[in-house]
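Lab notebook page, bench 4
Experiment: in silico fold of construct C2
Operator: M.H.
Input chain length: 127 residues
Purpose: comparison with the prior construct
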Amino acid sequence: MTIQEIARLTGLGTARYCDLESFDEELTTNASLKRINDICKVLHISPRALFTVEPSQAGASVTLEEIPGRIKEKLAKERTSIQEFEERVGYSIVESLDNSTLIWDWNIECLQSVCKELQLDWVAVLP
């Protein structure tokens, strides 16, 4: 499959797709989890496989949809506000607490930061 075909099938321009392939930071900072998932579907790989060096590296964890519950548990346990949590992770995620589908709009860096705070393997959280 050519780069042009992948770009077309994912709804990206060729230059945008080339940037995602060429520069690691483009994929982790500028692409949403949904966009990454869509690209992986076209490539017939899982998002987890995209970020895993060895298949056994990512252990059992929670799903993306379970993250809001984990955040709420942590906030209750630590008696911390969502604003304090957001300050620590560096991202505004409050809307995702009541609508887990919004997590698909996060970028990889946001997921990494939230998972670090929750002591989760961010790669294992990927589908």
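Observations: The radius of gyration is 16 Å. The mean pLDDT is 90.
Next step: discuss at group meeting.
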